[in-house]
């Protein structure tokens, strides 16, 4: 049976297309936070199979975008969503919905972060008029 840490690293690794240990290295001086992120968040909650991984990522980016001011986390989860097959247009829709329910400033922040991710991944968006 896999430990929470092993499950968490695998789940995080799938999302970030890595071995998942980057967060452990970044939080080496904060082992309790690292345990909370890897073992609990990814090892218990985000590894559950109740939601499809794409749906889970859409819910995650929606939650983060609506809170605002969470650039590092939102950037990781926007990129992670793309890594697991969420379409760029679906993430743009999340930004639009954020404007309605959380406010325009938070949506503008989310849009800027998403554009950074698109640029880093060399994703070109063709905007079509409705």
Key terms:
2 domains, AhpD-like, mainly alpha, 130 residues, 71% helix, 0% strand, globular
Structure at a glance:
With 130 residues, this protein is mainly alpha-helical.
Structure notes:
This protein is mainly alpha-helical and 130 residues long. The chain folds into two domains: 1-48; 51-130, AhpD-like. It is 71% helix and 0% strand. It is built from seven helices and no strands. It has helices at residues 4-16, 22-26, 31-45, 53-67, 71-83, 88-101, 104-120. Helix 4 packs parallel to helix 6 (88-101), helix 5 (71-83) packs across helix 7 and helix 6 (88-101) runs antiparallel to helix 7 (104-120). The mean pLDDT is 95.
Binned strand content: under 5%
How many domains? The number is 2
Distance between the termini: 52 Å
What multimeric state do the chains show? single chain
Known CATH architecture of the largest domain: Up-down Bundle
Q: Work out the helicity level.
A: over 70%
List the helices and strands and how they pair.
Elements: H1 4-16, H2 22-26, H3 31-45, H4 53-67, H5 71-83, H6 88-101, H7 104-120
Helix pairs in contact: 1-3, 4-5, 4-6, 5-7, 6-7
């Amino acid at each position: 049976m896999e430990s929470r840490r092993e499950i968490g690293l695998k789940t995080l690794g799938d999302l970030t297309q890595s071995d998942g240990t980057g967060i452990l290295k970044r939080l080496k001086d904060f082992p309790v936070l690292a345990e909370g992120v890897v073992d609990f968040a990814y090892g218990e909650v985000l590894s559950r199979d109740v939601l499809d991984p794409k749906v889970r990522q859409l819910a995650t980016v929606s939650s983060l975008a609506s809170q605002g001011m969470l650039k590092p986390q939102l950037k990781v989860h926007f990129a992670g969503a793309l890594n697991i097959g969420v379409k760029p247009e679906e993430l743009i829709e999340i930004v639009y919905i954020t404007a309605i329910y959380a406010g325009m400033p938070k949506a503008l922040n989310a849009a800027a972060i998403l554009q950074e991710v698109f640029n880093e991944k060399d994703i070109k968006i063709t905007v079509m008029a409705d």
